[in-house]
Write a structure and sequence with these properties.
single chain, Muramoyl-pentapeptide Carboxypeptidase, domain 1, Aminopeptidase, 7-stranded mixed β-sheet, binds zinc ion
Amino acid sequence: MRLFRKGSSGREVRDIQARLVSAGFLAVGGEELADGYFGDETDRAVRGFQQSKGLHADGIVGPDTWPALVDASRTLGSRFLYLREPQLRGDDVTDLKRRLNSLGFYSGKEDGVLDHDTALAVEQFQRNSGLIADGIVGTRTVDALLRLSRVTKPTSVASVRESERGLPTGGIAGRRVMLDPGHGYPPDPGAVGPTGLRESEVAESIVERLGALLVDSSATVFYSRRHAESLDVDERAAFAHKQSVELMVSIHLNSSVAPVARGASCYYFSSGHYRSPYGYRLANHVQDALVDGCGLLDCRAHGRAYRLLRETRMPVVIVEPAFITNPGEEALLKEADFLDRVAGAIAGATDKYFSGVKACGEE
Ligand SMILES: [Zn+2]
């Protein structure tokens, strides 16, 4: 999609502003609203919204922020919710799952996707509340939910249940893993380094090495895309579901307008009170391995609600081993030896994850 940022104007900007108003981030009656102009006020609102959603707060409305804005304009009770294909999604679904989880009905990870677990939880809730157990969230079910649920519980049953279900043990052999090199050139190079190195191509080189190492450990490896192919986030998620993979590792590189910014970071799914125990464990293992094994600065593992993390049912970790915009790190990213070490670090962490090794900070 087109990107909208400070300086943009027109019909689409009016639409963005209307959604920011309904999400409570932009005041009604502002000057920019009347003009449909994306100025400082709208920029502030977009950044505030992005921050609240765990998105990168860059003030740009693009493929991550736009769907989040669409989701945010839905509230529980504004439509019927039930299991269907394609699955219903939105902030109303997140709210529903959060409320069911806080009542002890396990409805799955607190993302915005109405899946099988959610439908079962709805039926259970309805049976327990003396309602017709049809799995359809209509007026009566919403009323009962709003009456009963408190969403202030610090620990959600979803995190607890997923941990109880058991994080993987028994090793990496035979596990189905999808490797996802970010972006895809042409037409999307991702971030570009000072001498023109492309994020999409470095990601491919790392993925190629990582894949070979995982195959050596007898994992079954899938690749979301091949060289010079480009896919959007939905296609990557759909392919991972189709192949029933148990884990997806997505490789990107970080970028900044500040050339001095450097170091490694990882991202796992987290939203509200929910934190994916799987993602947390793997991301921290990867982070430790990159810092200890490759001598990279520790920019830490972070919980985020990025689209790829939100729209996938299996645990997904996004790894950004270095800043391609940092001249020193860009130079390293051109060295085969460095890429081998990065791939080795991620492979070692993946092995630890499937072997049931706890990460530091886990209860
Ligand atoms: Zn990227």
